């Protein structure tokens, strides 16, 4: 099960856009996603394939994409975050609806579970209501040792295969040059606080918690 703590803002937005364009579980065309996100079709396909590798979407070339059950749960959490943020901004702070929607869309990706709970309590949202889905329901792994998990959740001394790095930037290239690329096996030698000592086939390196959380591995 994928943890939302390991998802980048761009990954969450892609899930949100798939959810917005889908209807009754129908597949969404990548061309429609490219138009909505203003991204190149190749970039959209690459992001979707990565989300597919961690079980959040079902993608078939030339047939489009739809959210899996877990992907839908992530979309529901994002919607819930947006709704309570928008309500807080409009009802408590008196912000105009359009501005509140824009700000809430930015803030929904960084909202912590604690703040989400506090906002929900402030707004009178019933946390016992099954229709309200909170962050922790996605963050908690149902299985004791899931197939896919962020590197931060890998046990010390365990080996795992890198499946996806949830960022596409210069840091990704640096990690791949060090042997931390999808398909390669790594060993978590030691995890100490917010530092993770990794051994790859070619070298050893130390990663901070922020980077380690964006590396999805299969144990």
From TrEMBL:
SMART domains: FeoA, HTH_DTXR. SUPFAM superfamilies: C-terminal domain of transcriptional repressors (SSF50037), Iron-dependent repressor protein, dimerization domain (SSF47979), Winged helix' DNA-binding domain (SSF46785). It comes from the Archaea. Its main location: cytoplasm. The keyword DNA-binding applies. Residues 7-68 form the HTH dtxR-type domain. Keywords: Activator, Cytoplasm, DNA-binding, Iron, Manganese, Repressor, Transcription, Transcription regulation. It is found in: Cytoplasm. GO terms for molecular function: DNA binding; DNA-binding transcription factor activity; protein dimerization activity; transition metal ion binding. Pfam families: Fe_dep_repr_C, Fe_dep_repress, FeoA. The keyword Transport does not apply. GO terms for cellular component: cytoplasm. Transmembrane segments: none annotated. Homodimer. Belongs to the DtxR/MntR family. This is Manganese transport regulator.
């Amino acid at each position: 099960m994928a943890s939302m703590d390991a998802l980048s803002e761009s990954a969450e937005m892609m899930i949100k856009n798939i959810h917005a364009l889908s209807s009754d579980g129908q597949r969404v065309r990548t061309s429609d996603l490219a138009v909505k996100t203003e991204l190149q079709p190749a970039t959209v396909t690459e992001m979707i394939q990565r989300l597919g590798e961690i079980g959040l979407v079902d993608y078939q070339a030339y047939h489009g994409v739809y959210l899996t059950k877990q992907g839908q749960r992530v979309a529901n959490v994002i919607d819930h975050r947006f709704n309570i943020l928008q309500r807080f901004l409009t009802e408590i702070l008196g912000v105009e609806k359009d501005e509140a929607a824009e700000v809430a869309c930015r803030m929904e990706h960084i909202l912590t579970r604690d703040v989400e709970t506090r906002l929900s309590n402030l707004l009178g949202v019933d946390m016992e209501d099954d229709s309200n889905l909170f962050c922790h329901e996605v963050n908690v792994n149902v299985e004791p040792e899931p197939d896919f998990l962020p590197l931060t959740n890998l046990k010390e001394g365990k080996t795992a295969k890198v499946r996806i790095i949830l960022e596409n930037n210069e840091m990704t290239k640096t990690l791949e040059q060090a042997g931390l690329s999808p398909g390669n096996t790594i060993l978590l030698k030691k995890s100490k606080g917010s530092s993770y000592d990794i051994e790859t086939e070619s070298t050893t390196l130390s990663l901070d918690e922020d980077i380690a959380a964006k590396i999805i591995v299969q144990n």
